[in-house]
Amino acid sequence: MGDLTGRTALVTGASRGIGRSIAERLAADGAQVAVHYHTGGQAAAQTLAAIEHAGGRGFVVGADLGTDQGIDNVVAMLREQFGNLDILVNNAAMMSKGRDRIDGEEFDRIFAVNVRAPFFLTQRALPLLADGGRVITVSSAATRIALGDFAYAMTKGAVDVMSRVLANRLGERGITVNAVAPGLTVTDMSDWLDADSAAAMARVTALNRVGYPDDIAGVVAYLASGNARWITGQVIDVSGGLWLGPRGSGNPWLSLLPSAVTAENGQP
Fold first, then answer.
1. Residue 91 is part of a domain; what is its CATH number?
2. Is 152 part of the annotated catalytic residue set?
3. Of residues 37, 152, 212, 222, which has the active-site annotation?
4. What does the H/E/C string look like for 36-55?
5. Per the structure, how many domains does the chain have?
6. Minimal CA–CA distance to 152: which of 106, 186, 185?
7. Of the given ranges (14-18, 192-196, 207-211, 241-245), which has the lowest mean pLDDT?
8. In angstroms, rounded to a whole number, what is the distance separating the alpha carbons of residues 18 and 125?
9. pTM for this predicted structure
10. How many of the other CB atoms lie within 10 Å of CB of 28?
11. Residue 197 lies in a domain
């Protein structure tokens, strides 16, 4: 067990992917974890079973966070099961299907789930959130890279701003508020990712591979810990250096440097 022993945590969207990995990691570090899901009840039960099998504790809570009633139900369950809350992880989110052809209904839904839900869940959970607590929201590298999913990137830009403003408002209570921004991460939502696609993404990533849920969970666990007590109002990039610039022989700057300089510095 880590230094989260005795702490309580809620992880939204914890039935699969990044959310599941975060929930399991926080539990492994000692926290009691509320495993939230919307439609994946069986998968959420599997997350809880994995937590309990490893010696951790928690419970499952189902709710549609895109509605006021869903948010209220989660907060009521937290009050009943925990009494207070130490760590809130806003992970639940959805991507759009329409991308640049998105219609109004889908646009409203994605903002309800990705922006409205973390805002009002945080607002309504504040009376339960302990002084010195943690609010961590999963953002995306899509906020700094011009990709095709307009609405998704817009929602993640909104939660980045939300995190900075909340950090300033809640700092007097010792509550830190941060966001983490993953790049492409291998989950069941990335079933389109074959070996060729993964290799292509690795070539535009400084650390030369795609991400995995545990890569994200480790950073969230750090931000939830006492070691991160002096970090707040930040968006932490956890993309492995996605799209930092051309790499190796594809870097146009290398052609401008004398060969002796590149050889001395070990450049390919």
1. 3.40.50.720
2. yes
3. 152
4. EECCCHHHHHHHHHHHHHCC
5. 1
6. 106
7. 192-196
8. 22
9. 0.91
10. 19
11. yes
